[in-house]
Design goal:
There is one protein chain. The protein is mostly helical and 129 residues long. The protein has seven helices and no strands. Helix 3 packs antiparallel against helix 4 and helix 3 runs parallel beside helix 5.
């Protein structure tokens, strides 16, 4: 069946984009929960990996495909363990470890532009989170 929504942008291993990639994928997955490719954790991981390209990430993708296929020896394709292990590996490798410090510095420099209180509050809340 045809997938709905906007396909997440390709991920090239840039840590600054890792949260965006996962959020885009989560939205895409949510729109397609009844699709076999999203309902089956093994296929979901393969689909996510197919959206990862570039010199900085190709070895990691190859390693994940190997690990995924190795898990088939002990887990069925429909077991959530495939997705859980993928997310753990992704977060361990691509989480922006400086995100908290970067947000703190941006908070320190945050200023309201003219009378745009709404933007100031939205930016403050985002950085504080």
């Amino acid at each position: 069946d045809k997938l709905r929504g906007v396909v997440p942008a390709m991920f090239n291993g840039n840590r600054n984009r890792s949260e965006d990639f996962l959020r885009e994928f989560e939205l895409f997955q949510g729109l397609n929960t009844t699709s076999d490719i999203m309902a089956t954790p093994y296929l979901r991981v393969l689909y996510a990996l197919s959206l990862m390209r570039g010199d900085n990430i190709k070895d990691w993708v190859r390693d994940q495909v190997t690990a995924l296929n190795d898990r088939l020896n002990t887990h069925a394709r429909d077991e959530e363990e495939h997705w859980t292990q993928f997310l753990t590996a992704f977060n361990r490798t691509f989480t922006d470890t400086a995100a908290q410090a970067t947000a703190y510095h941006k908070l320190q420099d945050l200023k309201m532009n003219k009378d745009d209180l709404d933007s100031y509050i939205a930016t403050f809340n985002h950085l504080a989170t």
